[in-house]
Amino acid sequence: MVNYPSTKSINRFLLEVYASVYKSVKVYFRYPAWIIGDLLATPLWMLMFIYPILLFLPSEQWRSRETYEFFYWGMVSWSVISVALWSIGNAIRSEQQVGTLEQLFLTNADRIILFIGRLASSSIGLAINLVYMSLIVYLLFGVSIRVINIPLFIISILFCLLLSLGFGIVYGALVLQVKSPGAISNILQFFFLAFCGVFYPVTKLPEIVRPISYFIPFTYAIDLLRHSTIGTETVVPLEVELMLLSLLSALFIGLGYYSIRRVEAISKVKGKLGFY
Amino acid sequence: MRRIKSLVLNNLLVIKAVFMREILYWVRYPLWFLTLISFPYLISGLFYSIGYALSGENAIKYFNQRAGTPNVFLYQLIGSAIFMISILIIEDVGQSIRAEQFRGTLEYNYLTAANKIVLWGSVVIPHGLISLTTLAGSIIPMLFMEIKPVDPLDLVLGVLVLFIGLMPLFGIGFVVAALTMRFKEPWAVTNIIKAFISAFSGFNYPITILPLWLQYVSNALPTTVVTDIIREALLFNKRLYTMSYQIELLALMGLVYFAVAITVYKRWEEEARRRGELSKY
Amino acid sequence: MRSYAIETKDLTKIFVTKERKGIFKRGTKKRIVAVDHVNFKVCSGEIFGLLGPNGAGKTTTIKLLATLLIPDDGEAWVNGYHIVQEADKVRESIGVSLYSDRGLYWKLTGRENLRYFAYLYHLPPKVAEKRIEELLEIVDLKGDADKLVEEYSTGMKAKLNLARALLNDAPILMLDEPTLGLDPHSARKVRELIMKLRGEGKTILLTTHNMEEADHLCDRIAIINKGKIVALGTPEELKRMVKRQDIVVIEAINIDKALIEVLKGEDYVSYVSENIKDPLSMSGTLRIGLNENSREALPNLLALMTKHKVKVQHIKVTGPSLEDVFITLTKRGFYEEDQESRAK
């Protein structure tokens, strides 16, 4: 008889991460229609956003590089939020619907690592979209997208992904009991679009509502992303922003752990783990 | 005569069954109503906020120059409401058959004596009702706030226009639904169609700002025509009966899309049954 | 240190469901006691069966012991570990196969599904590959291992499920209806595998509603009905609970309720249990427990069949089976219990 204890070691941790990433990436590439659909739809969604906003801008700004860079990085930021809400946020529910959630919880695998693979497949999607959207912006509007500070850009993307993971797991755990969380996700998405400075700096918001933005972790991640790519001013000093993001990422990952353990226990008491 | 009566009654029963099924889903998941009614406000608010944040006090001035009205919110609200309804129809209808396949109920639907065109086509009624509720919930409060009088004839014509205008979307949805019996991934197809319609229907902008060649594409979309008609009526006070040409065009589009949908559906249903795809999820 | 592989003490699980009627009426809550103060002990190295009709609480019991459910009352220990306080250690000690058409990733192949779960069970890659090959051979899926699960039949999924349960080579196996959905040949292979695993020293907790399977495989059986254990013992001990009598098993067409009521009223009949397989032709099986020698009762029985226009296709006289034990204890057969739980 072979015994494989659950005592944590770095090897076991890596094995779990590998398994999670392996599965998610394999499944991602086995839905080629989704990848193609995403590629074809992304520039169209971008246009759906750009044209209405151009109506509010003077004609000179219709040709300006800054306008389209702003939109481009806004769309990227929106993708990050979508990863949190729809990809990671839906991960637990999705496993429940497929019927594999019980099987996953029969193992002693780390509960966050079980869903880290989703981050990997979402990152691949994000990377593809980054390149592809920049090509579309160039072809349609003649604007080349630039990144002023590449190391800081990489750091900002990492923070975005970590926040997406942590927040996504917390959110996913909260909505597990709601059979149709799509409605909540849609409304929350708008809330973030309005208050996280996705398409405009939060400093442009009326003072009375601005504090709301400062309580949302994505505000800082998006702000850092925009600072590293097009050089906008950060809402707080850069060092403070980096520290805040580190703390917030750690906090949300911690909250994620707590949430998923809690929802596992509640589902086991109510007998809802196997429900779909 | 008795046969015709029996046929009519049987089909009415099928329509009733589908109606009850759909309405029960909506009532048991009421959060979606909240989304449908609030989304047009959220979308409109978002565009307005972004525009104002980027342009400041001159935002409305620039908007008026291009859209022909300073009433930003109502302009966006009308388009956003029709956008929501369009997305809903394409998504729900497009994924309806796949959803049945996924649940394992598709074969059981096929085992019944119900006419399959009536069975799948009946979703038009509950979805049409939900669409109207959405539109009413979104636009009527604003109209009241603007104290806009609405002629009863225009109201009836408006409802008719909306229904006729959305028929082609049902047709598109059915084509997708039929194809997914074979190809299994409706989300990808509906995503592209939704994105295309959203980008080029002029829901939130006048299509005159598009390059000329894209304007031709836009004008071919039924959603562009519907949005235009309703905007003209509610924002620019044009009487609906004066837009009879557009309404006739819409009706023709509806017929064509539906005819294509039925043809495609019949072809792929036969294929799916030959390949044993009905039960595969 | 506890000496039993599995031990339960007043294990209880209650579910709250909502009944919905009409469009706008709010649902009424309903409490269902799925497992009701269940007590049993499973010795190491034995095959222990949980036998009962649909809705009896078998799967719920397994899920409680597998740490997928938290009990509302009572306790249990698996491999000496408490199912709630030491859930991690319990999971290391068990391999579980739950009956379901789901529970596998459709866009992964059979092999990839096993590989994924092998890593989650912390099998090092080289060991995992070897183990996967062995298991695919054992469950006879080697030829289909590299096909996507979405192309698998129900039987193939069941085999893959079983292979997954054996991945971590745990000392205790919990198998929920392992042969359901399998063709007779595959079902026999699975039973042979279960016997082989017992021979290797594994403890097996098995749920089934197939009485012949329970009779054949299990060292001991707990008969469970409506969440309670109504009898526990070896198959022979259980059958001895039924008074020594003849059981007449009749396969027939056109069985009607009136006939069953008449039979129940006859002096020589101690009980009647029906199992209707086809409601259209009302064909199925009647099990009739007799109070007297079957030779004297048979002519009367046949006369009643003829009078009620029942077409007898096959008749045999046998000794008591586990179904008869169930009927003796609950006054109903599995079929009647199934019907009642479905009606609820």
How is the topology of this model organized?
The complex is a heterotrimer of chains A (about 280), B (about 280) and C (about 350).
Chain A: H1 10-29, H2 32-54, H3 59-62, H4 65-88, H5 91-98, H6 101-105, H7 113-141, H8 150-175, H9 182-195, H10 210-214, H11 217-230, H12 238-270
Helix pairs in contact in A: 1-7, 2-7, 4-7, 4-8, 4-9, 4-11, 7-8, 8-11, 8-12, 11-12
Chain B: H1 2-28, H2 31-55, H3 59-67, H4 72-103, H5 106-111, H6 116-121, H7 124-145, H8 152-183, H9 186-200, H10 212-219, H11 222-234, H12 244-275
Helix pairs in contact in B: 2-4, 2-7, 4-7, 4-8, 4-9, 4-11, 8-11, 8-12, 11-12
Chain C: E1 6-19, E2 28-38, E3 41-42, E4 47-51, H1 58-65, E5 73-78, E6 81-82, H2 87-93, E7 94-97, H3 110-120, H4 125-138, H5 154-166, E8 172-176, H6 184-199, E9 203-208, H7 211-217, E10 220-225, E11 228-233, H8 235-240, E12 247-253, H9 257-265, E13 269-278, E14 283-290, H10 294-307, E15 311-318, H11 322-330, H12 334-343
Parallel strand pairs in C: 4-9, 4-10, 7-8, 8-9
Antiparallel strand pairs in C: 1-2, 1-3, 1-5, 5-6, 10-11, 12-14, 12-15, 13-14
Describe the structure.
The complex is a heterotrimer of chains A (276), B (281) and C (344). With 276 residues, chain A is mostly helical. Chain A has twelve helices and no strands. Chain A has one domain. Chain B is 81% helix and 0% strand. Chain B has one domain (2-275). Chain B has 281 residues and is mainly alpha-helical. The mean pLDDT of chain B is 81. Chain B has helices spanning 2-28, 31-55, 59-67, 72-103, 106-111, 116-121, 124-145, 152-183, 186-200, 212-219, 222-234, 244-275. Chain B is built from twelve helices and no strands. By secondary structure, chain C is α/β, with parallel strands linked by helices. Chain C has twelve helices and 15 strands. In chain C, α3 (110-120) packs across α4 (125-138) and α4 (125-138) crosses α5. Chains in contact: A-B, A-C, B-C. Chains A and B meet through α2 and α9 of A and α2, α3 and α9 of B.
Give the tags:
heterotrimer; A: 276 residues; mainly alpha; 12 helices; 0% strand; B: 281 residues; 81% helix; globular
Sum this structure up briefly.
The complex is a heterotrimer of chains A (276), B (281) and C (344). Chain B has twelve helices and no strands.
